[in-house]
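User: Sequence for Enoyl-CoA hydratase below. Tokens please.
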Amino acid sequence: MTAAPDTTPAPRPDTSRVVRTERIGTTLLITLDRPRARNTVNAAMAAQLAASVDELEDDPALRVGVLTGAEGTFSAGMDLKAALSGESPEIPGRGFGGLTETVTAKPLIAAVEGWAMGGGFELALACDLIVAAADARFGLPEVKRGLVAAGGGAIRLPKRIPYHLAMELLLTGEPMSGERAGQLGIAGRVVAAGEAVATALEWAARLAANAPLALAAVKQIVHAADGSPEPAAFAAQRRRTAALAASADVREGMTAFAERRAPVWQGK
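Assistant: Structure tokens for Enoyl-CoA hydratase:
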């Protein structure tokens, strides 16, 4: 007797996930995953990206995050169609994409392939390090659409590069290449197309070999010094380094150096 054909419908892929995470050693690889929409940011992506950053921050086994985009595009910025329908790509207190105003203790590295436009560029600027493919394209085209680069572009870019160069990008809305971003110091490393993620993961492994409390302290000191008078910055630094000096990791670092071995960090 011939068995009846199986008419059970095949399971549909989960299309509700627009941000994927993958643990690679002590690194959390975070991938924006709306390639058909050039990884533009809608409300769902903002919520999921914020949750991914929380996963990185809350898990002591994770030391560094790498942010990238699926299928050769970092992010083309805000999803204008979603915005016109009333969706917001911002989360109150956390900014565009749930990231641009978020303070993180752990280092974040942007691995940029393809387009990083508008809010996509601002997501990269919110990271601590940027690795860019030479043929990547960075731009803040908001003025072409009657908008302002309000996700950090107008605030952060003039602090990263000379004023007139930042204003050229902000006022013209024209893009620049990853190679040019490297020349200006926006990208710390420029690599061949397709190699940004692998290079960022190598960087992440090097960062993760350092003491996690020290990494967090560096970020806190740098952020506290931004725009502060030097006396206030040094006072804040003294408070932070005093707390760091009392940690077990500082003793472990010095002991490991004296014993000529790799340190074993406890994060405390």
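DSSP finds ten helices and eleven strands in the chain.
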